[in-house]
From TrEMBL, chains A, B:
Protein name: LacI family transcriptional regulator
Taxonomic path: Bacteria, Bacillati, Actinomycetota, Actinomycetes, Kitasatosporales
Protein's organism: Streptomyces griseofuscus
Keywords, ordered alphabetically: DNA-binding, Repressor, Transcription, Transcription regulation
A Pfam match: Peripla_BP_3
GO molecular function terms attached to this record: DNA-binding transcription activator activity; sigma factor activity; transcription cis-regulatory region binding
Domain (HTH lacI-type): residue spans on this chain: 8-67
InterPro entries tied to this protein: HTH_LacI (IPR000843), LacI/GalR-like_sensor (IPR046335), Lambda_DNA-bd_dom_sf (IPR010982), Peripla_BP_I (IPR028082), RNA_pol_sigma_54 (IPR000394)
Gene3D superfamilies (alphabetical): 3.40.50.2300, lambda repressor-like DNA-binding domains
Amino acid sequence: MAGDGGPVTLRGIAERLGLHVSTVSRVLNGPTGEQGRAASAETVRRIRDLADELGYRPNPHATSLRTRRSNLVGVLFPRLSEIVVATIYEGVEEEATAQGLSTFVTNTHDDPATQRERIAMVLGRRVDGLIIGDAHLDGAALADPALDSTPFVLVNRRVESGHPAVTCDDYQGGRLLAEHFLSLGHRRVAVVAGEPFASTGTDRTTGFTDRYREAGLPVPAHRVRHCSFDTAGGRRAALELLTDADRPTAVFAVNDLAAIGAMGAARDLGLRLGEHLALAGFNDTPLAAELPVPLTSVRSPMAEQGRRAVRLLLRRIAGEPVASQTLPPQLMARASTGAPVGPDLR
Amino acid sequence: MAGDGGPVTLRGIAERLGLHVSTVSRVLNGPTGEQGRAASAETVRRIRDLADELGYRPNPHATSLRTRRSNLVGVLFPRLSEIVVATIYEGVEEEATAQGLSTFVTNTHDDPATQRERIAMVLGRRVDGLIIGDAHLDGAALADPALDSTPFVLVNRRVESGHPAVTCDDYQGGRLLAEHFLSLGHRRVAVVAGEPFASTGTDRTTGFTDRYREAGLPVPAHRVRHCSFDTAGGRRAALELLTDADRPTAVFAVNDLAAIGAMGAARDLGLRLGEHLALAGFNDTPLAAELPVPLTSVRSPMAEQGRRAVRLLLRRIAGEPVASQTLPPQLMARASTGAPVGPDLR
DNA sequence: ATGCTCCACCCAATCGTTTGCGCCAATCGT
DNA sequence: ACGATTGGCGCAAACGATTGGGTGGAGCAT
C-alpha cells in the first residue's frame, strides 16, 4: 500500500488527484460527517479513499509548526519504578491517548536541579502543557519563569501555594488509619513519615497525628520519623522507632514500600506483625494483600488521579477556570494490624 | 529575559543583529569550539551572547520537519507499573537523555491489538526508532510492514526470529537457580513459569529444567505451570503446584512478583518458607531482601539493559551492523531457600 | 592593473501543513 | 436576461529551521 515514493504527503495525494493540497487538507481535517463544505461529495470520497489506501498520516512536525499546537504533554515524576507513580502514569497515559495526546514522561529523582532541567527540556519540546507529579511542598521548581507561558497541573502531590492539583485526600487517609488504630486500642503509636518535602507524606502524617491529638493522645515529635520513600528508608526509620525505650505498639508507614521496610525491621527485632506490633501502610499496592502477613493499607485511587489530571490540564489549556480535586481514600484492614499487647511480650 | 515578543526564533536574533538567519543558524549549530568557519569571531560572539540572553531554544518541530530527524524514540512496554519494566525504562531514559533523545513510552498490556496500535501511533509521531520491551516470542506485532522503514531493537524480551535484542541471560539465570536447588538437595521441584509468550519466562524455565534434566531429574510437565506475571497469577499457579499429591520441596517462580504471590499461597497452606518449602524468584527487586522471609532471587541488570538498548538503537539508526547482547545474571541466595524436609512435616 | 583565493556573509528553496482570501462557474431571483 | 449568491476549489503566505550555492570585497602574488 504505502509502497511507492517515500512517505505519503498531502501534496502527494493532491497531485495524484489533480487537486490542490489545500483542498485535500480541508477535506481530511473536516468532520467525517457527510457535509462540511470542504468539497463536493464526490471529491471528498476520492480524497478519503486515496488517503487511506496510501495510509496517509499527517506529519505532526509540520502540523505543530503551523498550528503551534503539539498535542504533547510533559509528565514529571520522581521515579517511575515506584509502583504508585507508575500506576498514576498508566492513568495519565490512558486518558491522554483517549484525548489524542502523547506524553513525554521523565524521572527527576526528586532532585531540584533535575526537576528544573527536565522542565526546561519538555518546554523545549514545545509541549502544550505539563503534568507534574514530583512537586515539592515549597513549589520551588515551579517558580521557573519559563513555566509562566505553559499551563500545568499537579498530580500525586500538592503544593503549598495551592496550584491546581489532583491528589488523594491524604489528610483524610491519615485520619482513617488513626481511627483504625484508636479503635484497636493503640495509644502509643509512631509514624514512618517519608520525605518532608512531599505532601503525600506530610498530609498523611498530619491527618494521623491530628486525629490522635483530638483523641487526647498527641503523638510526640520523636515518634514521627522522616525517611526516604523506599524500603531502605522505611527500614531505618522503623528500626529507630522500634528500638526506642518506650516502643510503640502501632506504626503507620506513609506508604507500602516504607511499610515493607518496616516489616524487615520488625522481623529483625523478632516482632511478629499483628501480634507484637501493628503495622499499616498506604496506597494498597497489589503486594500488600499477598505478603506473608497481609498488610493493612489505605487504598488510594491512583490511575483515576492520572486520568483526572489529564482532563484538568486540558481544561486549563482551554483557558477554563479549574480547581484542585482530592479523591477519597479507603481503609483496607488486614492481619498486620491487631490489638496491642502488653510490654511483657517479647 | 525571554520577555518580549513571543518565543525567540532564529529570525528574531538575526534581525536584531542585522544578520541573515542562515548565518545565525550556522553559528548556533557549529561546534562551540572557537574555530568553525561559520562567521568571524566577533560575529560568533555577538550571536551566542544574544541567543542565550534571549534564552533561544530551537523549535524542534521546525528542525524535525527540515532535517527529517526527530530525535524521538518510541518505547513499548507491557506495563510500566511492573518494577522490572520501570527500572529498565529508567535506564532507557537516562541514556536517551544523555544522547539528546526524548522518549515516548507507552503501555501495551501485552495485548497484540494494542501493540500494533501503539506501534502505529509512535510511528505516526515520526520517531527515529523504537525500543520494544513487550515482544512476544512469535514476533507477531513486529511483522507490521510499517516497521520496515524505522529501525528498532528489543529489550527485556527476545524474539524467536533473532532480531537484535538486549536481554538478561535468562537461560543462564534459570540454570543458576537449578544449580542452587540441586546443591541444597532438592529433587522434587516445580516452576511457576509466567506467560508462555514472553522469552523471559520461557528462557528461565528452560534453563532451569535443562539443568535438572542434566542432573538426571527431569521436571515433569505438570510441575511447570504458566501464569500471569503478577502476584495473583503466581499465587494461583503455586496453589495448584503445592496442593499436588506429591508436593515439590522447591519452587522457582520466574519473577519476584509471582514469587510473592507464591508466598501468599504457601502462607495459606501453612508452609513456612525456607523450612517446609524453598522458594526463589527472579530479578532481585528491592523488595526481595526486605520480605519477612528474605527471598532468594537472581539479580538481573535492568537499568543497564535499558542503557544498552538505547546505544544499540543508535547504532542501528546509524546503519551500523549490530548484534544481540545478553547480560549475565547473578544468584542472590537468601533465607527463602533452605534444605528440603521430609514429607512428615506439616 | 589583473587574476586568484578566501572570508564572511547573504539568498532562496525546502520540509508538510494550515488557512484567509479570491476566483470562476453554475444557480438563483426577479 | 442580468446582477447577486454560493458552492467548489485554487493561491500563496505563513510556521521556524537547514543547507547548497552564490557574491562582494579584502588580500595576495605576479
